[in-house]
Amino acid sequence: MIIASAILAETLPDPNSYAAIGWVCVILAALAFGINQVMELVNRARGKAPHPPNAQLEAAVEAVAERVAALEEWKERLIAKMEDDKTAVIQAGEDRASRIHQHIEADRNATDKKINELPERIISILKNTGAI
Taking the CA of residue 68 as centre, how many other CA atoms within 13 Å lie in the half-sphere pointing to its CB? Predict the structure, then answer.
């Protein structure tokens, strides 16, 4: 064991040299890479979904934007149609009310005419029967 550490100590560079600092950076980078790979493996084993590529995200966002635009256009057309229908219903109600008032006025005029003729008819009936 002592012999192995002596051989290892002879092959290692001086701790104060640039080569030693470089090797420390390489070892730290290798450790970080290894930890990253292990964490990725653990995430895949857990079934965690990886992040989708940007192209898929853009396509999904564009599809949603198109659907929203279509729904907004449909809503505007529906509101316009409802306004047209509302106007048509109001106009139909006014037309119907006008026809009803004309019918009532015609019946009122006919009734007034009959009421005004009633005394003359009663008198003529009484004369014809000999009561007067």
Answer: 6
DSSP string for residues in 64-77: HHHHHHHHHHHHHH
98, amino acid identity: S
CA–CA separation, 57 vs 50, rounded Å?
13
- Of 12, 10, 6, the C-alpha closest to 27 is 12
Question: pLDDT digit string (tens) for 98-131?
Answer: 999 999 999 999 988 887 777 777 778 877 887 6
Distance separating alpha carbons of residues 67 and 61, to the nearest angstrom: 10
Q: E strands along 64-111, which residues?
A: none
Question: Measured between alpha carbons, how far is 82 from 76 in angstroms, rounded to an integer?
Answer: 10
* Domain extent listing, the chain: 1-50, 58-132
CA distance 70 to 65: 9
> In this predicted model, what pLDDT tens digit does every residue of 19-31 receive, in sequence order?
778 888 888 999 9
| CA dist., res. 35 & res. 40, Å (int) | 9
CB pairs under 8 A, 24+ apart, for 44-47? none
Contact 51, 57 (CB under 8 A): no
